[in-house]
Amino acid sequence: MFEKGYIDENYVRVSRDELFSFVVKVLMKLGVPKEDAEIVADNLIMADLRGIESHGVQRLKRYVDGILSGGINLKPNIRIVREGASYALIDGDEGLGQVVGYKAMKLAIEKAKKSGIGVVVVRNSNHYGIAGYYALMAAVEGMIGISMTNSRPLVAPTGGVERFLGTNPIALAAPTKDKPFLLDMATSVVPIGKLEVYRRKGKPIPEGWAIDSEGNITTDVEKVFNGGALLPLGGFGELFGGHKGYGLSVMVDILAGILSGGTWSRHVKNTSERHSEVDHFFMAINIEAFVPLEEFKEKMSRMIEELKSSKRHKDFERIWIHGEKGFLTMQTRLKIGIPIYKKVLEELNQIAEMVGVEKL
Ligand code: NDP
Questions:
Q1: Counting atoms of ligand 1 from 1, which one is nearest the CA of 328?
Q2: How far does residue 191's CA lie from ligand 1's centre (Å)?
Q3: Whose CA is nearest to atom 9 of ligand 1?
Q4: Angle in degrees, 0-180, between the axes of helices 132-139 and 97-115, rounded to the nearest 10
Q5: In a domain, 349, yes or no
Q6: pLDDT at 201
């Protein structure tokens, strides 16, 4: 049974269903409608199931803080501001990012069913969790799904030291004959959630992930949290393509932020603040409008097979395709439970006590 990440005695296993109903109960106690609470829980738990610990239930506290501080609107009027046959602009009215994102991608898929393509841009939302969640929604409908969001400033542009860009993730999912292809990635070397995991474990971060406030590459996670910045995908400077990650991040700000009439990462705020101004971009491409779906899936699977059976480097056991580790991890965790770091479990149980639901 394959599982992503490093799991040791500091983790305890909780079943998917137990965790799901825990998150739903916590959110409902805080006033989130059941249907919405289930969308948020599904998104967070999909992250844990797929081995993305940084964006799983360890983030629940952030949403709870956002709700308690009034930064999140629990009864948003998520409305279409403009629309045509294949596009729409949505105002999220500061609702939970997952709920706004889910509705927006649903709309993109509906439009793609009728007109071949659906592009939905969203302004005035909140942190929406893993970008891949929405891309996969399209893939299970036999479409290509694309999802992007801007996020609060954490990344320095190439040549800069200041936090300016978000970790602005990009996801693309496409169906195959088997599991969908899923590229889901931050446009920084790592998302901030990975540093939170290292911080919680008291471990130094690998060299090349981040800089301190002076712009020196650092392994001291505290220096990054105290005025430092993450590096764009490709790392420091131009040598390994840092400028390209920087460009991809700006691309997300253009498509999600400026195109929606929203803003760009520098002006995006935390979930706990009012008007955090997070913006998203969703696209669904109806494959059948271009080529027969079966032909597409067949070619996807053949391409992946060729990739995976191409000549391998001696230091690598296998060549993976994007989404594969996540799906195998999900299969494992659905059987034996999701590993939760003990400190995260304590935090979740403190939340349970505070809102008055049964502890995990
Ligand atoms: P990773 O670096 O873990 O993975 C990036 C992609 O590469 C995934 O599709 C992964 O698939 C794939 N992959 C991993 N190893 C290999 C390999 N050897 N060969 C081929 N493909 C591989 O992602 P990040 O740490 O950059 O991002 C983690 C999550 O954080 C994402 O879900 C992202 O959406 C989210 N995020 C959300 C933000 C927000 O503001 N909402 C901000 C930033 C990030 P697999 O899953 O199968 O491993």
A1: 47
A2: 9
A3: 183
A4: 30
A5: yes
A6: 86
The Cα 305–Cα 254 span in angstroms is 35
CA dihedral 254, 255, 259, 262 (to 10 degrees): -70
Dump pLDDT digits (tens) for 234-284: 999 999 999 999 999 999 999 999 999 999 999 999 888 889 999 999 999
Query: Strand 117-125 and strand 87-91: pairing?
Result: parallel
- CB under 6 Å to ligand 1: residues? 50, 52, 54-55, 127-132, 149, 151, 167, 169, 171, 182-186, 190-191, 194, 320-326
**Residues in contact with 77: Cβ distance below 8 Å, sequence separation at least 6, in sequence order:** 93
- The answer as to whether 315 is a domain residue is no
pTM (predicted TM-score): 0.98
- CATH number of residue 33's parent domain: 3.30.1370.60
Q: CA-CA distance, 115 to 103, in Å (whole number)?
A: 18
Q: Output the six-digit token pair for 172.
A: 């693309």
Kindly state whether residue 91 falls inside one of the protein's structural domains.
yes
Q: Which domain holds residue 141?
A: 11-302+322-355
Reduced to 3 states, what is the DSSP secondary structure of residue 150?
A: coil
Asked if 266 and 153 count as a contact pair (C-beta separation under 8 A), the reply is yes
Can you read off the two tokens belonging to residue 45?
Answer: 């738990």
User: How many Å is the Cα radius of gyration of the chain?
Assistant: 20
One-letter amino acid at 158 equals T
- Provide the number of structural domains found in the chain: 1
Does a structural domain hold residue 73?
A: yes
In tens, the pLDDT along 20-69 reads 999 999 999 999 999 999 999 999 999 999 999 989 999 999 999 999 99
Please report the atom of ligand 1 found closest to the CA of residue 128: 41
- Residue 234, Cβ neighbours under 10 Å: how many? 21
Nearest to 166 by CA among 36, 74, 48, 263: 263
Ligand 1 center to 114 CA (angstroms): 31
Q: How far is the CA of 70 from the centre of ligand 1 (A)?
A: 30
